[in-house]
Amino acid sequence: MPQVLSENEWLIAIDKPAGLIVHSDGRTEEPSLAEWIAENYPAHRGIGGDWVSPQGEHVPLNGLVHRLDRSTSGVVIAAKTQEAYDYLKKEFKERHVEKKYLAFVYGTPTESQGTIIAEIMRSSEKPKRWYARPCDADDPRAAITDWKVVEKKDEATLLEVTPKTGRTHQIRVHLSSIGHPIIADHLYAAEREAILGFKRPALHAKSITLVLPDGKYETYEAPVPEDFTS
Fold first, then answer.
1. Which of 15, 69, 138, 185 is catalytic?
2. Which pLDDT does position 126 carry in this prediction?
3. Phi first, then psi: what are they for 68, rounded to 5°?
4. CA 167 → CA 8, 24, 72, 178, 198, distances in Å?
5. Is 69 a catalytic residue?
6. Residue 58 has pLDDT above 90, yes or no
7. Residues 6+ apart with CB under 8 A from 111
8. Residue 12 host element (H or E)
């Protein structure tokens, strides 16, 4: 069940549990965070318009200004007015929003921190996935991810990851490209045994820091989920 972390006149910060889709993908019928918002905040229905699926289905966003993968837990921001939505969407697009993630990965990086710069390319293979192609930082197609080691274990490492861009599967693809895919990632580490008890990709959206319309900086942080602490 989603939990409200914080709320003000412009937005709601929500802790999304792993396994809950942010909004319908146009292919399946299942509960979504967008529907939860509509049920609990009916005045927010229609904010942000619709997302149009590849099948042509119009899916109401109900204020959601960004997405997380179904399997990823953590902070999601939803706007409470259309004006706030337009402002927040612009902040995300112009990379003024800082997002931090926690990720358990296989193995141990040789360095304590690093930056990955690579374009995210779509593969023609099935199931649908993406892969990384190195490029220069000034390439408009470049995706950029900073990472640093938080804790090392015998067969795995906990990283704090800060994506500077917001491409599909960016963190998962980038970490896989340096030989340290996320534990239990069914797409980018399918050949590896899930360890540390994880039954979903070990990725958690820890926090979001942004500037509110009144100029004040705020950080919204989601508690570390049980499968991370255990």
1. 69
2. 75
3. -125, 150
4. 28, 19, 15, 17, 24
5. yes
6. no
7. none
8. strand 11-16
pLDDT class for 152, splitting at 50, 70, 90? very high
Q: Any bridge partners for residue 106, and if so which?
A: 156
pLDDT digits (tens, 9 = 90+) for 68-125: 999 999 999 999 999 999 999 999 999 999 999 999 999 999 999 999 999 999 887 7
Domains within the chain, CATH numbers bracketed: 3-225 (3.30.2350.10)
**175-19-101-139 Cα dihedral, nearest 10 degrees:** 50
Half-sphere exposure of 173 (CA within 13 A, CB side): 24
| Interatomic CA distance for residues 213 and 203, integer angstroms | 29
Q: State the residue for tokens 């508690």.
A: 223
